[in-house]
Design a protein that fits this description.
By secondary structure, the chain is mostly beta strands. Helices cover about 0% and strands about 50% of the residues. The protein is built from no helices and 11 strands. β7 and β8 form a beta hairpin. The N and C termini lie far apart (about 40 Å).
Length: about 120
């Protein structure tokens, strides 16, 4: 497990952009698959994007493909989510998470390390 702290959320108008960051502490960040999830009020926590240990492979939810980009800097132990062309339906609390699985997974129940979340609100 690693300790994770998200930042970068805020209020933005539809069509705008935000970049979320997730700072990790611990000795095994570079060996951990990472992902972003989000949860809106009254809804289940859903997978947004995932990235493998080296960053060579990524995965995105259909709802964000072409708009969001996940990346990582292992030297800085930091995960990023660049969000462009934001829509009101993107409004949610965004969480970063770490997985010990070999492949990228989308089930939040399979992730063992979580940040506290950062609020993203997109106005129309």
């Amino acid at each position: 497990q690693v300790q994770l702290v998200e930042s970068g959320g805020g209020l933005v108008q539809a069509g705008g952009s935000l970049r979320l960051s997730c700072a990790a502490s611990g000795p095994i960040f570079s060996r951990t698959n990472m992902a972003w999830f989000r949860q809106a009020p009254g809804k289940e926590r859903e997978f947004v994007a995932g990235i493998t240990k080296t960053g060579i492979s990524t995965s995105y939810a259909d709802s964000v493909k072409g708009r969001f980009a996940i990346s990582r800097d292992n030297a800085k132990s930091t995960l990023y989510l660049q969000m462009n062309s934001l829509k009101p339906e993107d409004t949610a609390v965004y969480y970063c998470a770490g997985s010990t699985f070999i492949v990228l997974i989308t089930d939040p129940r399979k992730y063992v390390s979580w940040g506290q979340g950062t609020q993203v609100t997109v106005s129309s």
